[in-house]
Amino acid sequence: MIFLMIVFTHQLSFGKIRLPDLVSDKMVLQRDVELKIWGWADQGENITIRFRNETYNTSPDKTGKWSVKLKPQKAGGPFVMEINEITIRDILVGDVWLASGQSNMETPIARLTDRFPEINVSDFNKIRYFKVPTQNNVESVQENIATGGKWFTGTASEVMNWTAFAYFYALEAYEHTKIPQGMLVSSLGGSVIQSWISQEHLKDFPNNLIDKQALSALNSSKLDKGRNLWNQKDFDDADWQKAKVPGTWKENGIQAKGTVWFRKNFDLPLSMDGKFARLYLGVMVDSDSVFVNGKIVGATSYTYPPRKYDIPGGILKKGKNTIAIQLTSNFGNGEFVADKSYKIVGDGVVIDLTGEWKYNIGRDISRDEDYKSKLKNLRNTPSGLYNGMIYPIRDYKVRGTIWYQGESNAGQSENYAVLLENLIENWREVFQWKQMPFLLVQLPNFMEKTDDPNAPSGWAGIREAQFKTSQTVPYTVMSVNYDLGEWNDIHPLNKKDMAKRLFLAARKLVYGERLVSSGPVFKSMKVENSTVILSFDNVGKGLKSRNRALKHFAIAGSDKKFVWAEAKIKGNTVVVSSKEIKKPVAVRYAWSNNPEEANLENAEGLLASPFRTDDW
Questions:
Q1: φ, ψ at 188 (rounded to 5°)
Q2: Measured in Å, how far apart are the chain's first and last C-alpha atoms?
Q3: How many CA atoms lie within 13 A of 72 on its CB side?
Q4: 281: domain CATH number?
Q5: What is the number of alpha carbons within 13 Å of residue 546 lying toward its C-beta?
Q6: Residue 304 pLDDT grade (very low, low, confident, very high; cuts 50, 70, 90)
Q7: Neighbours of 596 (CB within 10 A)
Q8: Which residue spans adopt a coiled-coil conformation according to this UniProt entry (predicted)?
Q9: What is the sign of the dihedral through the CA atoms of 170, 172, 178 and 179?
């Protein structure tokens, strides 16, 4: 009885103070700056913080929030922090990086272990990782992040909790500086840049301002008829329509926007009764939840990742089994992508899942169009991720920000430069640091190569916007990556070299090292007769061509029709010409979705950023 009273009393006392999940075991605090520790407490509670032989005292305001400022700390650790009865252990002081963007910042490190087997034996306790849980709130800013976040080390027992780019960047930074590194990752797959910018900083884009009354009405209509019903094994789907998998909704005659359920029965031999199996569902567009015999076995929230789900033991039965998929595509372009594997594999048995399925529409959002017309660009969920995943962490001091995003904005690249500039201004304002470094990851190559130099390219437009931002916005740099992508995978696996290039830029911008950190940068052009002479900055020890003759230069006359051109290096210039163009007026370099053959670099081996001299 005495023991129970002690435990009960301790829990009451502990409960008087709440901390954000960021302030917890294994956290990394930014060195050499004044720090802020915050939380919430009951009225009348006195808060005492002890850290590195210093004591700080405070009490909550009327809303229950409290904060203290800690004097700048030198790098080191591990340390212990005491906040009343709460003890936070294994704290490091070093450099903290806020890493944000969409799915390429989200790529799980587990996808890279075959290519980089050293991940499996990672032994780096001085690098740490925290993933901000998803919280999308378009209605208002949030004071705290969603629950569930946790700091992890870079040791083998915890490294599988990391995302890939964050791991390789932290490792590169630590091995160079020998200072603890913390990766604070706040990202979401499929997100557009508008969702990461506050409403105040979207005022130049009226289509991204929220009609909150219409939003409330829309939210109340989001009901899926099949929820908790159509996933069940014994549900009667006899009157459902038929569809073929793989295939698109349109190919199957599905005229809907929203959620469509797919069901298929399959038989298993006695040998598979209760056994573990692996489910392969290719790639689906956009998001899915998958059930086998009524039990959920996997879910993915956005397009492109391969769907590979484990079916735990005890779910599969001999004889008839049922798989149900809740597939959501709010644009009506749902799809089971062709030329991918759709099967169940286990204990020597392979069940082919291609062919005929049954389907029914769970929710058609077409009737919400009236609300959507008032909400303008709802798909962008403008400001929602800023409200829920950036604003709540504004008091956590960082060394700089990494931004890897743009794929979802490639269809409207013309506005991206302004949006990116607004985002940088917004974040520097909310973090109260006008010189906050921004490190931009330029989009790599993707999609099939084209032989047409006039083919439109949203990805080239995004790259141009990223490049211009790095040149015009102070304390901003960019890495070039159009040789590191994969034409058939929007999530290229070589995050190691991407991180290495970006940290090279950080060494110059953030740490002030004197080095060549980028490839040649287009400066000017001059026309002489039928040739164009291009001049560059950042040539380092000189211009060169990687492996072969220069590729991916195109030239045009006043008719604005581009043709592939011959390009040769002459000193620190590139001379471009074509027999087809007698009076050239414009040149483009690496201007396509997939310019992987573009090969202009400096002697330091850093590629030139794609560019164009026209504004057509």
A1: -155, 125
A2: 81
A3: 6
A4: 2.60.120.260
A5: 17
A6: confident
A7: 19
A8: none
A9: negative
| Same domain assignment for residues 147 and 253 | no
Beta bridge mates, 59: none
Chain segment 309-343, per-residue pLDDT in tens = 999 999 999 999 999 999 999 888 999 999 999 99
Residue 367's pLDDT is 65
Spatial contact of 268 and 349, defined as CB atoms under 8 Å apart: yes
> Is the pLDDT confidence value at 402 over 70?
yes
Burial per residue of 208-217, b for 16 or more beta-carbon CB atoms within 10 angstroms, e otherwise: bebeeebbee
Indicate whether 526 and 514 sit together in one domain. Answer: no
Q: Which domain holds residue 313?
A: 241-365
Residue 31 domain flag: no
Of 365, 392, 427, which one is at a domain's C-terminal end? 365
Is 177 among the domain residues? yes
- Distance between CA 208 and CA 195 in Å, rounded? 9
Q: Which of 365, 398, 417 is the last residue of a domain?
A: 365
The answer to whether residues 346 and 405 belong to one domain is no
Residue closest to 589 by CA, chosen among 544, 555, 549, 543: 555
Domain count, the chain: 3
Residues 394 and 504 in one domain: yes
pLDDT higher than 50, residue 149: yes
pTM above the 0.85 mark?
no
Query: From residue 392, how far is each of 132, 149, 252, 307, 382 by CA, in Å?
Result: 10, 13, 44, 32, 17
Q: Whose structure tokens read 């899942």?
A: 353
CB of 371 within 8 A of CB of 330? Answer: no
Rounded Cα distance, 273 and 282, in Å: 25
Residue 472: how many other CB atoms lie within 10 Å: 10
CATH code of residue 511 = 3.40.50.1110
Does residue 347 sit within a domain?
yes
User: Could you report the per-residue pLDDT of 435-456, keeping only the tens digit for each?
Assistant: 999 999 999 999 999 999 999 9
Q: In this structure, what are the phi and psi dihedrals at residue 294, rounded to the nearest 5 degrees?
A: 85, -5
Token couple for 133: 């849980």
* Domain-embedded: residue 213: no
Helices 164-177 and 495-509, packing angle to 10 deg: 50
Q: In what order do the strands lie in the sheet with 342-346?
A: 308-311, 277-281, 342-346, 349-352
- For every residue of 282-344, DSSP letters joined together read --EESEEEEEETTEEEEEESSSSS--EEEE-TTS--SEEEEEEEEEEETTS--EE-SSS-EEE
Task: Look at residue 246 and give its three-state secondary structure.
Answer: coil
DSSP single-letter state for residue 607: B
Tokens read off for 42: 């009951």
List own/partner pairs for 109-114 with CB under 8 A and 24 or more apart.
109/159, 109/160, 109/162, 109/163, 109/164, 109/167, 110/160, 111/164, 111/491, 111/493, 112/164, 112/493, 112/495, 112/496
Tens of pLDDT, residues 356-389: 999 999 988 876 766 666 665 555 579 999 999 9
Query: Are 128 and 204 in the same domain?
Result: yes
The residue-averaged pLDDT of 36-59 equals 95
- The distance of Cα 6 from the centroid of its chain, to the nearest Å, equals 46
Closest to 334 (Cα-Cα) out of 268, 262, 392: 262
